[in-house]
Design brief:
Enoyl-CoA_hydra/iso (chains A, B, C), homotrimer, globular, signal (chains A, B, C), 302 residues, ClpP/crotonase-like_dom_sf (chains A, B, C), 4-stranded mixed sheet
Chain lengths: 302, 302, 302
């Protein structure tokens, strides 16, 4: 497992006003079985109130992905959420603050975050995203590095990064591959919130399903069918497709771009402002995250 | 013409219960002219009952593709089928058995099979697939290496390889280029049977047409129009597009993956089972080939 | 700015029968502001009667693109047209004649033409095409190298190059990236005229809008929103996406192909014939340019 060395520590102060949910990793990712052999698993992200991609989610994700190395029992993993409004929200912006996360090493957490994105591409297990709520920022980056994605009617996708002043590192280049440069540019540059039907039309997700139940059935059927097949064939297919993934150098270039941007004073200030006004996980703010960031940073009187 | 050296000989025995159609290559590919100059040709695959991609088809295809080298008379070739149910089915699995094909050298035939796939990309003639029946496995691999594909309402596309335990070598990486990694992963990993309308929606084919006649007219019009133009411009356009094809190394990697997989005992056994239950070309089995393979290998009591 | 050295001078004579519009560059590109800060600009192409991509347009485009280097005021530029029938037509074919353009150096102009295509990809400004008329040849090449494209109901796209006997250098490989090799081959090889709705369906444009006003509002909203964001983030996003653009070598290969083709006697003759019958900018001929070229060169008695 390659660990990225990020040397990013944004120098501003911030009053941490939100409740810290503590170290309850054991419950962050809830595992269940899709088929009898449990070779197809369902992993449900549970980090109320908005499935913020915080230290606990990062650590739990890493623990789970590491557990999938060097084993042949698990063939397929579906990631869903137990929150009807959010598949997952952004990375906890406190990771980029000087105070950081109490009791945690922020640099290590960010390295683990990027290592997780890496593991999604390289782990010889088939990863499926099942989304019927919002997937912003970090959530979307993880989805874009899974093998496939299916949406329900309430799914929304988006990256607020351009509005904040950074880039969707880890997701942007995958999105270009999936939907082409023109549409990726539109959604990324405008920090757009993209509906499930539009995401399916352009190829951001494989398909959209009319209800949450229809989505669940479709995903379970596909996961269970794939899990019937020889693991060697699944691994070879994933490896073959990976040959056309954006090269590692592109990801590293994006990471360098991200770090350069996040170190700019104005952009560090933007992050701080968003943390304050959103309280980092207020549901009303996060429901229209991208639009609210635009409104707060650029359109409201200071 | 590069010939791939495959050293694959699956070691199991099999009773060859099906009728061997003999060496009737002359009738396998029926040629006709689309325009007066015959610079646009139609080639109709005819190998009843399911257009199995067997030794005769491989040899006839190679003879035809070789005839197109170093000539300037033929600008466009449309490949269709005289079988309303099948554009073409899979490769004759007997090629991978120890007995092989009576009177033929299996290794040479497999080399020729892959050489044909190569020739579709490199021959300076425009190849168009016109599909209004099933295109499974080998059939789909050939289509994916043509310059464009048009479908009628009865077209279906699919690769049973993952269910058998191998990969769609020669087609998989082209499919990733055409429809993106997410959808290619879904269809390949689940050994899906994909309808004409879904194939058009995602880009597997250029477009779908409401009837067989409408399909025929559309393809004839396009082929005849292209054939009007200077051959040098057609060749230059094909060469330019070919610069973005998956690199040859990717194809060779996939071929190595295929050979590794096909040598595994369980997967060799799967091939043998399918040969026995399908009688290699029973129409009822091949009509729902992928689903029947899944049913027979994984869901029926042994 | 890299300047391409083209050594192309087609050797035929031609009576220049059309009115030469003169050196009125100042009015060729009309600039206006989309937002208050004018960080989002609108540039309207105005070269009646068909927005022929002639010496004046080439020079004005170059002057404008050069003005965007090394500055941070302009973040987004939208290119539209004041001609309801044409976004832009082809390159002035007189550039390829021996007489050339009176008072201008044809070779320099062609070099500038290709330099402009290059600048669209490399200039750290976001370029948006707003199209509600025809975009043929040169017009389409410029659009395909912008960051995104939006269409109104009257938009049409097409490249007549294959019918003439050359290739859509500068546009072809971008189109393959955007819509896949199969559809790009179809449209380029058949010199097709593609409607706005089909262009949106396949990804040639980002989306199609029901009226010119709806198109205008959509583009203004996106441009103004993007222009709110830190310029560093916009530049980084564009740079990240550019990593997946066709490599420069592919463009140079296409340019070499183009020059080889244009030097062939038959193809030089085709250019001459088209110049004569179209009077280079007759509206009735240019409205169905590709189809009229096909009709005139191949289907009418000489």
């Amino acid at each position: 497992m390659t660990v990225f060395k990020t040397h990013l520590k944004i120098s501003f102060f911030l009053s941490l006003t939100y409740f810290w949910p503590g170290f309850v990793e054991a419950q962050i990712l809830k595992q269940s079985c899709i088929n009898e052999a449990c070779s197809a698993k369902r992993v449900t992200i549970s980090n109320p109130p908005v499935n913020l991609w915080d230290a606990n989610v990062i650590a739990a994700f890493n623990e789970f992905l590491v557990s999938l190395q060097d084993q042949n029992e698990t063939k397929v993993v579906v990631f869903d959420s137990d929150n009807s409004d959010f598949w997952a929200s952004t990375l906890d912006f406190n990771l980029f603050t000087k105070l950081g996360i109490p009791g945690r090493n922020g640099t290590t957490l960010i390295d683990t975050y990027f290592a997780n994105l890496d593991l999604l591409l390289s782990t010889p297990v088939i990863f499926i995203g099942e989304i019927n709520g919002r997937a912003w920022g970090a959530g979307d980056e993880h989805l874009l590095r899974m093998d496939m994605r299916f949406a329900g009617p309430e799914a929304q996708f988006g990256a607020p990064e351009a509005a904040v002043g950074v880039i969707h590192v880890g997701g942007l280049q995958q999105l270009v591959k999936l939907i082409g440069s023109g549409r990726a540019a539109e959604y990324m540059l405008a920090a757009a919130q993209v509906s499930a039907s539009e995401a399916a039309r352009v190829g951001w997700v494989n398909s959209v399903h009319p209800t949450g139940n229809a989505l669940r059935k479709h995903v379970n059927d596909i996961a269970a069918r794939i899990a019937l097949f020889p693991i060697e064939a699944l691994q070879a297919t994933k490896a073959s497709i990976a040959e056309q993934a954006p090269p590692r150098a592109a990801f590293e270039n994006d990471l360098a771009r991200f770090n350069q941007l996040a170190a700019l004073p104005q952009i560090a200030a933007n992050l701080g402002t968003i943390l304050q006004v959103s309280k980092n996980e207020s549901k009303s703010f996060e429901e229209n995250l991208n639009n609210n960031i635009v409104k707060r940073l650029y359109q409201e009187p200071n």
